[in-house]
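User: For my dataset I need records formatted as: sequence, then structure tokens, nothing else. Please produce one.
Assistant:
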Amino acid sequence: MHRIPIINELYEIAKLERQNGNPDKYITPFYFGIDIEGKVSASHILLRTIAENPIYIIGHTVHHYQNYGARKDGEIFCFINQEGKLLSGIALTKWSLTEIKTFQTDMIEGATFKLVGTDEKFVFHERASTPLNSMDLLWKFFQELDLNCSTIKEAELYYKYFIQRLELNQANLGLDDYREQLEMNASLINQYKELLSKIEAKLS
């Protein structure tokens, strides 16, 4: 409960900043909580998030655009740990999650990951077109990124691999299986090229 006044104060400051002198701007809070096992909770109500006893709370201000249908977008106003300390991001071993972009309150449209100890960043911003569009999936990707990648190039490739798994609806597809699929695709492409060459040779 010690986190409640800290987060409420940060929210009020962030709300004023987003309103930017226009009190008619409709701003509300939204919270993601992440527990020690990586389970993600989401709620407009801070008490409900606190009740889950998360090790991290990510607070967003949500701007409701009254003139654009039901459009909403979110901006992070805090990363808070279990002790109530304000963080610049959530750090695992090799990577830290420093920014999340949301729309329609809880849908993920992008994120920024920073390589710990450097200024190097991996950023994705896909809007609604990405299958990686929930906080549960973002957190899963973050954990796998930290486990498997040590460079920006590796992160870029791993992101493509993760997205393909989601598109194939094979969340547990292993790296060896993925490599095998890529090799199979390459083989099919080569066979297709050979076939085209034979057809061209007959026509010439």
